[in-house]
Amino acid sequence: MAEQNNTLGLIAAFLATVLYGSCYVPVRWFEAGDGLYFQWMMCVGQLISGVFVLAFAGDYKEIHNGSCDHHLLTGNALTITIMDGIGMAVGSLLWNTVTCIVGWAVSRFGLFGSLKKVPYDNVMNIIGVVVVCVGGCFFATLKHHPMKVRPAPWQIKPTLPRSHSEGVKKVEELKVSNTTRLIAILCTVFVGFLYGNMLTPVSYLITKNGSEGNQMHYTTYFFSFCIGAILTSTIIFMIYSAYRRNRPFINPELTLPSLISGLMYGAATCCFFMASEHLDPIVAYPILAKAPGIVCAIWAILLFKEIKGRWDVLHLIAGICVTVVGITLITISKVKLY
């Protein structure tokens, strides 16, 4: 690997944080059904971003099949289920906590063939991860207030109330069953585990090529990553369409927002790869696993009104403060102070 640049890594981490935390905002207004069409279009957008990266900075000589990670796609396919069950902010914050633990452990202990990377201050690094997880406990207590989305065109009935006041009343009447919440929480844990291993295939290939004397970069594998995403997504959608007897849930109004989300997600992932290269995954994973959830929570409060009430807002602020402290400790643990 090339020489690390901590400044570039932190800039990439900041951009990835903002983009990851905002990438689901465009689609949150629309009825996404079971989310399979959304994840397909999102992967198309991600592939477009991969083509741009390949054109300007990629390696034209080789497509690295081993880096076609399928963890991301399986996780994205469950995103809508999670957001409908426990909300965009709570879901993101919880799966980010699991991602933080898994991603940190894989890099710290060299699991699944990854390169083992130990920070300069091991004690501070571990304390930082624990503090980040404590922040996740604050987020787990937040109450989700479901929002009303724009229905698909064929779901709109002329008899539906049109006034603003009636629309607000309808939002307040939305309820989520305990079974739906439980399924969403289980999906959240599963998705967090998948996202925590998102860089595992790439790290393995870098370790393997490094042992053979070949200098590789994380971004070298980004286009392959996007190819794997679109292939897996297409297969999932084909199976889903067959299961639905060629009648998949497709909301045409979801197409452009999903593509925009994919472009944002692709750009965020590219920045994530850069941050992992210049900061090491042991530092980048905890930061990028939790910080986007903070951005997502801000959107949920200010725009979607998913988090309401003084108690929940105070819990959110406390969780954010604790998380920032943990992220700071993890970042400092990478710096050689003596």
Commentary on this structure:
The chain has 338 residues and is mainly α. It has one domain. The chain is built from 13 helices and no strands. The longest helix has 25 residues.
Shape: globular
- Unreliably modeled segments: 163-173
Give the helices and strands as they follow along the chain.
HHHHHHHHHHHHH
N- to C-terminal separation?
25 Å
Please provide the count of β strands.
0
Helix/strand-derived category reads mainly alpha
Helix content: 55-70%
Overall pLDDT confidence: 76
Q: What can be said about this structure in brief?
A:
With 338 residues, the chain is an all-alpha fold. It contains 13 helices and no strands.
Features:
338 residues; mainly alpha; 13 helices; globular; Sugar_transport; TMEM144; transmembrane helix
Secondary structure topology:
Blueprint: H1 6-22, H2 36-57, H3 71-77, H4 79-86, H5 88-109, H6 122-140, H7 164-173, H8 178-196, H9 200-211, H10 222-243, H11 255-279, H12 281-302, H13 310-333
Helix pairs in contact: 1-11, 1-12, 2-10, 2-11, 3-8, 3-10, 4-5, 4-8, 5-6, 5-8, 5-12, 6-13, 11-12, 12-13
